[in-house]
Amino acid sequence: MKFRLALIPAFAVALSATAFSAHADQLADVKARGTLVCGTLTTTEPLGFQDPKTRQIVGFDVDMCEAIAAKLGVKLEHRGLSIEQRIPELASGRVDLVSAALGYTKERAEQVDFTAAHYQVPMRVLVRKADKLDSFAALAGKRVSAVKTSTPEIYARQVLTKSEVLTYQDGPAAFLAFMQDKVDGFVTSHTAGLRYLAETKGEGVYINDALAWEPSALGVKKGEPAMLGAVNKALEELEASGDIDKLWVKWYGPETRFAFAREKKLTPIATFAK
């Protein structure tokens, strides 16, 4: 009888631990440790890049991470990511949130969950003004560069079916290939490409057409409804207060070298899932 009684407390503890584990979620983990691990790009100005003076990673996406962390009542732990790391790091739980030019696609939505889209941008092709490539049709038989596994690569392959798409590890490498005349065009989002457009010093120009309009959102690990709901609520509050617009003006406003308006406001991701 004493043997049985001795086992009961241990069994109860094990059962309690199992129940706790079953009900634990990522949002609870974030609040318990007091930090939000948020991943951004580090080589894409002005979304996420290294400030030459402070050597810190700064940008619109970094500020969005800070704003979301503040709304959740925790501190930010920043994590630098490459384009191809975004979904694997999120799916594995090594980051809690991704704010890294994450364009929505149905294929990606099978791997991670998307918040509402907080901005939308056109996909562009940067070409040399002297080449007079003024349409997508003019790129037939030409080479274009894009970042490997990025949505610009996806759209380039869908639309520029008569062009050869060469992929590179990141934006600077894809742009360098363009500047070294290894390719005739560089496929990029309008916002990310503004930095490179400026660096051509007037020799580059966007083809006056969009491959597609891409909704960009924040990424959350799949199967974490509490986390997704909390981040969406934070985005709604930031939109209502005008804080997202303020951050956009800070990095893309008329006083910057990018001067790109945020035309489309916070939009439910279900709008694009149809």
UniProtKB/TrEMBL annotation:
Family designation: Belongs to the bacterial solute-binding protein 3 family.
Signal found in the keyword field: yes
PANTHER family assigned to the protein according to its UniProt record, in alphabetical order: ABC TRANSPORTER GLUTAMINE-BINDING PROTEIN GLNH (PTHR30085:SF6), AMINO ACID ABC TRANSPORTER PERMEASE (PTHR30085)
Keyword GTP-binding: no
Organism listed in the record: Pigmentiphaga aceris
Protein name: Transporter substrate-binding domain-containing protein
Domain called Solute-binding protein family 3/N-terminal: residue spans: 35-255
Record keywords, A-Z: Signal, Transport
One matching Pfam family: SBP_bac_3
